[in-house]
Amino acid sequence: MHTTTLHKWQHSHAFTADNRTNEQKTRRVVMLTAVMMALEISAGTLFGSMALLADGWHMGTHAAALGITLFVYRCAQCHS
Asked: Nearest 5 degrees, angle CA 21-CA 27-CA 28?
């Protein structure tokens, strides 16, 4: 029989309802990602670089995913 417990490796799942600072930080990251996306797409178009265009559109998927995170922050505020 084992005499040890898992308490040493467990942690709490109690999260705070007020995540305004995290939401603001996420908003900044979304803006930075969107600006970089626009710059990469613009530069790729201007210089004819397929790599910059591809990376710019790929950056758009990151911006969209982070936008979903902002949406969830808003939903959590409304339903808390």
From this structure: 95
Tell me, yes or no, whether 61 lies in a domain: yes
Residue 49 belongs to domain spanning: 20-78
pLDDT digits (tens, 9 = 90+) for 29-60: 999 999 999 999 999 999 999 999 999 999 99
For residues 59 and 37, the answer to whether their CB atoms sit within 8 Å is yes
| Number of domains comprising the chain | 1
Q: Are 30 and 67 in contact (CB under 8 A)?
A: yes
pTM: 0.72
